[in-house]
Specification:
By secondary structure, the chain is an alpha/beta fold. β14, α22 and β15 form a beta-alpha-beta unit. The protein contains 25 helices and 16 strands. The chain is globular. The strands form 4 sheets. A 6-stranded parallel sheet has the order 6-5-4-7-8-9. A 6-stranded parallel sheet has the order 13-12-11-14-15-16, sandwiched between helices.
C-alpha cells in the first residue's frame, strides 16, 4: 500500500496518524466504507426516492424525462417534504427519548426506587419546580423530584396545550407560533402525528408538512432536549468552568483505558464512579496497570467533560481511530451516533465493546444492560472486563499519537450569567458597544463527506476574528478544542473587542456549552437576551451553523433553531434539492414566516461572510453600529 498523510481526510494530526496505522493494520474505517458506497444514489441525495409503502419504491426523474409522480400520485414536492418530515421526527424522537430517560431517573430518585442516583443540584430542582407552579420551599428534595418528574411526564402525552418549559421563549415568539399553528403540544404526539401525516394518503401538501415538521422540531428544542439538559444538571450537577484535555493523547499507555461513547450520562456517570473504586484500582494494578483512565467520545463524553472535567479522546469520526491506537481496552456505549463498524474495528484488536441500553444492541458486542436499580453494580462489572482486556493488550500494536491539548469547559447558562454578575446586562452592553458584535452556535457532527474538523474549526476562527462570540456543542467541541480555541489564550486570535471582553472575564472566545441536547442552552440564552431587550429572538444578532452535520438529530436541531428565529447555515446539502418548493421554503420562504431561514454553504470562509452579513443587518435594525 502506498504511504500518504491523509491530510485530505482530516486536519487532525492524531487522526492522520491513526488512519495511516489503520491502513498498515488492514483495518477498514468509515472513510473506506464511504468510498465503497460511491457514487451515491442521485435520487436519494435529491430527496426524490420514496419507500413509504409497498406499491414502490418510487423515484422521480429530476430531468423530467422519466416518472414525475410516484405510484400513489405523489409528486417531487410531496415526496421531498414527507422525507424531511420523517427525518425531523426521527431526530426529535432521539433527543426526546433521551429526555424521557432523565425524567424516569428523576422519578425513580423521588420514589426511592434507586440508590445509585441522587440529586446533586437541589437548588436548580427547586427553581424548575417553582417555574412549573410547584411550591418548592421547605419541601423534601425527593418529594420535589417526584412532583417535577410527574409534571414533565405530561409533556410526552396529549393532554397539555404546550410543554412545561415553553414559557421560557419570548412572548412575541410564542404568539407567532400560536398564529402559525405550530405551538408544540405533547412531544410524542407531534412525532406520532408526523408519522401519520407521512403515511400514504394523509398529508400531501408540502407547506402543511413543513409547518408540522417545525412543530415537531420545536417539541425537541423547547421540550425534549430542554428536559434532558435541565434534569441532567439536577441529577449530575450543573456545569461550572474547569480545564480538561482533548485528542487521542489523553489515552495512557500504562493504564487501563476505557472510553464512554453515546449520549446518556446515566451510564457514563456510573462508569466514572466505578473507575474510582479502590478494589477495582487494586485489581488494575495487579494486572500491571498504573491505574484506570477514563475518556469520552461524542456527546456522552461532552456530558462528563462539562460536569466532571473528564478528557475527550475524540468526536464522531475519531471513534474508530481511537481503537486503532491499540491502547483502548473497553468502549462502553449507550445510544446514538455509535457506528456498527466500531465492533468490527474492535475485533481487529483486543478491545471489548459493551452495549448497555435495551434500545441499542450491536451484533458482536457484549450486552450488559444497565437499569436504574443495577447501574453501580453493572458499571463495576464493565470496568472489571476492561481490566481483564488490559491483560490481553499487545504492547507492540500500541501507538498513541501526540500530546493532549488543554481546553476550558463547563459554560452552562448559569455559569455564563454568573461570570457576568448574575445578569445578562454586561453582555448586552458589550453587544451594544460593538465589542461583541453577535453570537453564533456552531453545533453538530462530523461527516466523512467533509474534511474532518476543518469546517467546524475554520468557521470558529473566522467568526471570532470578527468579534463574534462562538458557542459550541457536541462534536464541534472537539473540532475547536483540538485547535486551541477553547482556552482563554485563544483571545489573541479574536478581534479587538471580543479579545478585550474575554481577557476581562478570563474566558475563551469559543465557549463549550455541552452536548447536542444542550443546544437548548443556546436557544434559552437567546430568549434571555431577547427578553432583556424587549425583542424577539429573530431580532437578535445571532446565528447557528452545522458545518459538518450528518444525523437526523441535526435536521431537527436546525429546524427548531430556524423556527425559533435563528438564521442557520448548513455545510452539507440536505436531500431537498429535488423540490424547488421545499428548497425554496427552507432557504428563503421561512424568513417571512418565522423570521429566519436556512442557507447552505460548504466553504467555512464564505459561511462566515453569510453570518457576518446577517449579524450586520440585525445590528443595524436594532439601531446599533454594524
Amino acid at each position: 500500500m502506498s504511504k500518504r498523510d491523509f491530510s485530505d481526510l482530516t486536519i487532525c494530526k492524531d487522526g492522520q496518524q491513526m488512519l495511516a496505522k489503520a491502513r498498515e493494520d488492514g483495518v477498514e474505517t468509515v472513510w473506506d466504507r464511504k468510498r465503497a458506497q460511491e457514487p451515491h444514489c442521485g435520487f436519494c441525495e435529491l430527496g426524490l426516492s420514496c419507500r413509504n409503502c409497498a406499491m414502490g419504491p418510487c423515484r422521480i426523474d429530476p430531468f423530467g424525462h422519466g416518472p414525475q409522480r410516484g405510484v400513489c400520485g405523489a409528486d417531487a414536492h410531496v415526496i421531498v417534504a414527507r422525507n424531511v418530515g420523517r427525518c425531523v421526527a426521527a431526530g426529535a424522537a432521539a433527543h426526546s427519548d433521551h429526555g424521557r430517560d432523565l425524567v424516569e431517573t428523576l422519578h425513580a430518585i423521588g420514589a426511592g426506587e434507586t440508590g445509585d442516583y441522587g440529586i446533586r443540584d437541589p437548588e436548580k430542582l427547586g427553581r424548575i419546580a417553582e417555574e412549573l407552579g410547584i411550591a418548592a420551599k421547605g419541601k423534601d428534595p425527593k418529594a420535589l423530584a417526584q412532583a417535577v418528574s410527574e409534571r414533565l411526564f405530561e409533556d410526552y402525552g396529549i393532554r397539555r396545550e404546550s410543554p412545561a418549559l415553553l414559557g421560557r421563549a419570548p412572548q412575541k415568539r410564542r404568539d407567532l407560533w400560536k398564529k402559525l399553528g405550530i405551538t408544540p403540544r405533547g412531544i410524542d404526539r407531534e412525532i406520532v402525528e408526523m408519522m401519520h401525516r407521512t403515511h400514504m394518503g394523509v398529508d400531501n401538501e408540502p407547506v402543511s408538512l413543513l409547518l408540522h415538521a417545525a412543530r415537531v422540531a420545536l417539541s425537541d428544542g423547547w421540550a425534549g432536549s430542554f428536559v434532558a439538559t435541565e434534569l441532567s444538571d439536577v441529577i449530575f450537577g450543573t456545569p461550572t468552568p474547569k480545564v480538561s484535555q482533548v485528542n487521542l493523547g489523553v489515552l495512557k499507555e500504562d493504564q487501563v483505558n476505557i472510553l464512554v461513547h453515546g449520549h446518556n450520562p446515566i451510564v457514563s456517570e456510573m462508569i466514572l464512579a466505578a473507575t474510582k473504586d479502590p478494589a477495582l484500582l487494586k485489581a488494575a494494578k495487579a494486572k500491571g496497570a498504573a491505574g484506570i483512565n477514563l475518556a469520552g467520545l461524542c456527546c456522552t463524553g461532552n456530558e462528563l467533560l462539562m460536569r466532571q472535567g473528564i478528557p475527550m479522546a475524540g468526536n464522531h469520526l475519531m471513534s474508530e481511530l481511537a481503537i486503532v491506537t491499540g491502547a483502548v481496552d473497553l468502549i462502553i456505549v449507550d445510544y446514538q451516533c455509535i457506528m456498527p463498524g466500531l465492533v468490527t474495528v474492535a475485533g481487529c484488536y483486543h478491545t471489548k465493546v459493551i452495549t448497555t441500553s435495551p434500545k441499542a444492541h450491536f451484533t458482536g458486542a457484549e450486552h450488559v444492560e444497565f437499569t436504574l436499580q443495577n447501574a453501580r453494580e453493572k458499571a463495576k462489572q464493565a470496568v472489571t472486563m476492561a481490566i481483564e482486556a488490559y491483560g490481553a493488550r499487545n504492547p507492540a500494536r500500541v501507538s498513541i499519537p501526540g500530546s493532549p491539548v488543554p481546553l476550558m469547559t463547563g459554560f452552562s447558562n448559569e455559569a455564563i450569567l454568573g461570570a457576568l454578575g448574575g445578569t445578562p446586562a454586561p453582555l448586552l452592553d458589550a453587544i451594544k458597544a460593538g465589542k461583541v458584535r453577535g453570537a453564533v452556535g456552531i453545533v453538530g457532527c462530523n461527516n466523512p463527506k467533509v474534511k474532518h474538523d476543518y469546517a467546524n474549526s475554520e468557521l470558529a476562527k473566522e467568526l471570532i476574528k470578527r468579534d463574534i462570540l462562538v458557542l459550541v456543542t457536541g462534536c464541534a467541541t472537539v473540532s475547536t478544542g483540538k485547535q486551541g480555541l477553547l482556552m482563554p489564550e485563544a483571545a489573541e486570535m479574536a478581534g479587538p473587542g471580543l479579545k478585550a471582553v474575554c481577557k476581562a472575564l478570563g474566558i475563551p472566545p469559543v465557549l463549550h456549552v455541552g452536548s447536542c441536547v444542550d443546544n437548548s442552552r443556546i436557544i434559552h440564552l437567546c430568549a434571555v437576551l431577547a427578553d432583556a431587550l424587549g425583542v424577539d429572538i429573530s431580532d437578535l444578532p445571532v446565528a447557528a451553523a452545522a458545518p459538518e452535520w450528518y444525523s437526523e438529530k441535526a435536521v431537527s436541531i436546525g429546524l427548531y433553531a430556524v423556527a425559533s428565529g435563528v438564521f442557520t447555515v448548513l455545510g452539507v446539502v440536505p436531500p431537498v434539492l429535488g423540490s424547488s418548493v421545499v428548497a425554496g421554503l427552507l432557504t428563503s420562504g421561512l424568513e417571512g414566516v418565522v423570521g429566519a431561514t436556512f442557507a447552505v454553504e460548504p466553504d467555512p470562509h464564505k459561511m462566515a461572510e453569510l453570518i457576518d452579513a446577517r449579524i450586520k443587518t440585525k445590528r443595524l435594525a436594532l439601531g446599533l453600529s454594524a
